[in-house]
Specification:
With about 100 residues, the protein is an all-alpha fold. The chain is about 95% helix and about 0% strand. This is ATPase.
Length: about 100
């Protein structure tokens, strides 16, 4: 074998090594993209679950708040009607007297 044949053989080996390295690099990049995409999906799912939990908590707090406000409003209405009911006969009498005087 001559030096030229040795050089050609070395070039072929170098080309084969470059090709293998290029393919290996593509596999590594593809695997890294897959891992990154899976991590992204997991994080998005985690964030969505956290948001759903916070939203549910806020809705529950809102429901309690609204029930409390509604109960307070009903109690105020009951007191108002109860107090005014005591004065109803006097109010009717007053109105009738005013109407008769016209």
């Amino acid at each position: 074998m001559s030096i030229i044949d040795d050089i050609r053989e070395a070039e072929r080996k170098a080309d084969r090594i470059r090709k293998e390295a290029k393919e290996k690099g593509k596999e590594i990049v593809k695997e890294a993209k897959t891992v990154a995409e899976n991590n992204k999906k997991k994080r998005l799912t985690d964030y969505q679950n956290a948001c759903d939990k916070k939203l549910k908590e806020a809705e529950e707090k809102q429901e309690v708040y609204l029930k409390t406000r509604l109960k307070a409003a009903a109690e105020n209405d009951e007191k108002f009607f109860s107090n005014n009911e005591k004065h109803l006969p006097n109010a009717v009498q007053y109105i009738l007297e005013k109407v008769k005087s016209i």
